Every structure is written in structure tokens, then in C-alpha cells.
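Case 183 in the screening queue. Each case pairs one protein sequence with one candidate compound; here the compound is magnesium ion. For every case the pipeline is the same: read the inputs, emit a complex structure as C-alpha cells, and attach any notable structural observations.

Predict complex for case 183.
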Amino acid sequence: MDSHDVQADLKHVLYGREQIQQRVAELAAEIDRDYEGRDLLIVGVLKGAVMVMADLARALHSHVTMDWMAVSSYGSGTQSSGVVRILKDLDTDLMGKHVLIVEDIIDSGLTLSWLKTNLESRGTASVEICTAFRKPEAAKVKIDVKYVGFDIPNEFVVGYGLDYAEKYRNLDFVGTLAPHVYE
Ligand code: IMP
Ligand code: MG
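Case 183 output:
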């Protein structure tokens, strides 16, 4: 879907398709350089990271293996608690592997902080993080994010994998919703 398909639901477009593709290609070039001569496993965090994983993997000029995890950081409430449950674990043994976690967005950073520690405890050679978007809140937790697509304002955004009530993941851009959608 593009912005015309959801015009009535939008407040504004933050980053368009071309801008996102351009930035993802730049990140891929950095990753190619940084991991030259090493085997890399990229791990996508379901479901939000599907779009950035697909684009990033195709923009790389090196072989990588791909795996997926699904985690839930929310109990019954709506606040990220930092207590994470694994809904789907990796199929890959991480012993000795260079791992790059790929995320859609980092907000509080609690989920990723937990995930990084969890993967490191499995005997990895290294674990780094790549995120398409990062909010200002993320600066408050001590988490080293090596690759960031865009630093965005503290607004709720949808598209390019990000959802509101499971909708809008399949937008080819990222934008904010008009208040009438969630009020
Ligand atoms: P946190 O970094 O532990 O707070 O959790 C980040 C997760 O919250 C992301 O993986 C998203 O699933 C979700 N999230 C945070 N901000 C947004 C947003 O603006 N739009 C859609 N989902 C978001
Ligand atoms: Mg997510």
C-alpha cells in the first residue's frame, strides 16, 4: 500500500519509500564492510522487522543466513515491562556465530536489551543490533545500537512493518496516523 491508499487515515508521511530504500542500502553497505570475511547470521524480530529484513538482506552484497524470533515484552498492560517471553525461538545454534539482530523500531529499548543478553548467553562470537527506526526514549537505556536507519520524534508511527492494532504493516512508507483512527 502507498500513501494514496490510506490518505484518509494519515496525519503525515515521515519517510517515503525511496528515502527508506536509500537509507537501507547505506546500512547494507556498512554491514558488508564491517563483516567482510566473516559469516553473518541476521536475526529478524517478528513481526515488525519483516520489511526491513527483506530489504536489508537483498541490499547486501555478501552471503548471510537468516533466522527469526518472536518475543512478547508486554504482559497484560500496554507498557513495555522488560519482562520478555520467547514466542518463537531461533532454529540456529548460535555457538561461535556473528549475529546481527534486526528490529523495526526501538522505543524503550527494554526488549532489545533483554534479547541481546539472551543471545550472547548462547556462546555467540558477537551480537550487534540494527534498527530501522529509533525513538528518543531509547537513549535512556544503556544499549549499544550499531546501525540505525532513522532517529524519529517520540510519536506513534505505522508502516514499513510497524502496526497499529495489526494494521498498516504493509505500507511502503512510515507515517503518523490521524487522531480519528485511534480516538
Ligand atoms: P521497546 O523498545 O521494548 O519499548 O519495544 C519496542 C516495540 O514496541 C517495537 O518492536 C514495536 O513492536 C513497538 N513499538 C514501539 N513504538 C512503536 C510505534 O511508534 N509504532 C508501532 N509500534 C511501536
Ligand atoms: Mg517489534
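Case 183 observations:
- Helices lie at 17-34, 50-59, 110-120, 179-182.
- The two ends are 23 Å apart (CA to CA).
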